[in-house]
## 1
Amino acid sequence: MNVFQLVQDRFRQAIVKIDGVEQNAPAPLARSSRPEFGEYQFNGAMALAKMLKSNPRQIATQIVELVNLDDVAESLDIAGPGFINVKLKPEWLSEQVAASLTSESLGVEKEQAKTVVVDLSSPNLAKEMHVGHLRSTIIGDAVANVIEFLGHKVIRQNHMGDWGTQFGMLIAHLQDKLQASEVATTALSDLEDFYRQAKIRFDEEEGFADRARQYVVKLQGGDPECETLWKKFIDVSIQHSEEVYEKLNVNLKRSDIMGESAYNPMLPGVVADLKEQGIVVEDQGAQVVFLEELANKDGEPAVYIVEKSGGGYLYSTTDLAAMKYRSFDLNADRIIIFTDARQAFHFKQAELVGRKGGLIKDETSYEHGPFGMMLGQDGKPFKTRTGGTIKLVDLLDESVERAGKLLAERDSDLSAEEQQEVARKVGIGAIKYADLSKNRTTDYIFNWDTMLSFEGDTAPYLQYAYTRIKSIFRKSGVDAESLNADLKITEAQEKALAVKLLQFNEAILTVSVNSTPHVLCSYLYELSSSFMSFYEACPMLKEGVAEDVKLSRLAISLLTAKTLKKGLDLLGIETMERM
Ligand code: ARG
């Protein structure tokens, strides 16, 4: 149930009945900041009064008379200049909580299915996955999961960087290693190292650079030997990424990979399309599109190169081919691409070129989801102590190890093996949540202590809140699956929790529309906090609590646990029964 939408619709139906108000007049609704004012506030009376040249409080009174919220609200109060505060009815809330409990989607309404392409992760295969790709992987994964949960068809596209001139040098180096009877997986066990060695040879070794360049040409020309070497390289590198995906618990399969190389055959066609539209011109031997719309401050148009002088295509050409493929072949209604913010201008240009060149249907929306950088304690880009790039696998392993140490300091009746499993979920969850809970567009500082803390807005806190409810159930002796309670909401904290639970739908919707997982994180944190207050104020297992009260409160707790689990699951964070 989308409560916000429901209340807003009722207000919309009311205001259009007022003389002089248009059918599509805005119906501004907000969530109340303080529970004593109720849960929602309608703010439209002031604007309407201005438009109708009337008194806002009078208009508000008229709206209150017209609006039909009898089933939902226990009171509608006019405050200040003409705000209308809506207080939801406990009986209605009880019914909704009960309905959510029995619904598979926990009360979230499915939307009319659209096809959404999500471009995520997309590491460069020449090197090891580093922390920059943590964000594109987990933010993309969370958004894809949420959109899918709303009933849409999501097509994940891992636009891996598996093509480009550096592969000439890499496969030449690989060939030598293989000839020295090394197997590919061993030679490529450390990609960073491998890349470094190849680069040194490229810069210093006589003849190597020429050979590398030849290999690039051969590879592009489809030479079978080079292709075999390239495939070997790509294959091992993909396995490295898959190891990270597995650890990270993200939903990415091999079949989601549509690397840059896959677009190769389409590139000449894309340039031809642009030529046909007459938007491409030759500039210093290269084929370019000038974009007056994106001129710099000196009035010089932006230049989008689609073919290099002397031939050869670029990252930018590939993105046009991807756009065309996604819009026309995959029939995407929406394309969302997650990369760091430095590529924002690139995608702005790509969209403009694509729209002018007819490479994207008018009705396909093209969205770039930029994100900021992960910074070290010193506020500078995250590096090892010696200044090297941090491998993502190492970072994840360290987190699990740290979580294990912290958990060992706590009381626990778990076996060593179970503890290790909990440490894994907490360690990985902590890194992911610390990232996902920040508004993605800003940079953030990576901090082990805050992300692994059991207090505050962290994964361990949410995971702990979940196990807490699970433990209440174990103690209660009530079977959650067969719980059949008559829900009765009476206490203020109980009401607050019920309202929070019903706002799950609103949070999910916001994440889907704006591609902002942090909204779901904040929601889950508020939900947990709301549960903790409820738990303090509304005893369940204490002596003297009537059976029906106990069962009703257990039912609300159960929906809380299910919502927490579902929410964390959508974020790609695992839960456990005990901690
Ligand atoms: N491989 C690129 C990088 O690491 C990201 C690719 C994102 N997707 C795209 N369609 N350009 O920066």
Note: Residues 119, 122, 124, 159, 161, 319, 322, 337, 339 surround arginine (CB under 6 Å).
## 2
Amino acid sequence: MDKQRLVQTAQALVAKGKGILAADESSGTIKRRFDTINVESTEENRRNYREMLFRTAGVNEFISGVILFDETIRQDAADGSSMVKVLSDQGIIPGIKVDKGTIPLPESPDELVTEGLDGLRDRLKEYVELGAGFTKWRAVISISDSTPSQYCIAANAHSLARFAALSQEAGLVPIVEPEILRDGDHDIDRCFEVTEETLREVFDQLAQQKVDLEGMLLKPSMVISGGAAANRAGPDEVADRTIGAFKRVLPASVPGVVFLSGGEPDDSVTANLNSMNQKADAAGAPWELSFSFGRSLQGAPLAAWAGKVENTEAAALAFYNRASLTGAARRGQG
Ligand code: 13P
């Protein structure tokens, strides 16, 4: 493992004003996204849509890296150059989702555990050859009256750490993503509590499995009220509670946090990120507070594209606008 390279890549991904585009929707998820615009999920449509995002002029001012799905890291753009080259030529680091999705947790079927460790060491070697600089693994934690169980948190934290250790061994920066779902009518205090408990376990496992914290990034959810809660907390409170939870459990040696957007409305996501960056210095937050958004960056361009070649320019403009607003929030200038 080349520690220096890991650290440099992690820092480049959270460079000031920049963050990550998550374009690693699995086959099932991209089909659901395309269903919303009545477009068939063919390989060509997926290529055209993602190539539109990747070729958006000027977007590299705000985007440091893109997370790809297995199909895309092997795919060529319309002109025959690889999608990886389209990104690298603009100074954007290609990354790869390496988990294989979730299955019900044995003996706790309302909860999920993420699969994908079998054969991972060999798959990572191949991804390095294909040009990846970093990896992502998503674990899912749900909040309800009876969840999350300690068992679910422990099982997922263990796999996240196994993934992270194997990634670093291969020279790839792991993005460790324990997503706490927004579904439910719980209040922000409950989300705070679950966030603290989950991150405590994740960092305990990362330490046990000898993961180098300087060469990784955390991809958490923000500490927010449940999506169906009455009187949902605003950006001020979200920023205070999120930074507050991190200060209890997130070591200062982790260079940065790249939030997921989680299906929150675009405006809230941007306002929350902005508030966090405005408060970071005064709150003594030592980490870069950045983004790794899927839906919040892609909702507008997906709708503008609608599967039609003639909409490519309008879709690219919609993507540029979302990336630019997100980049401003990342600097606390939104
Ligand atoms: P969202 O921003 O849409 O939550 O997606 C981020 C992601 O990569 C989830 O794994």
Note: The CA atoms of residues 80 and 311 lie 22 Å apart.
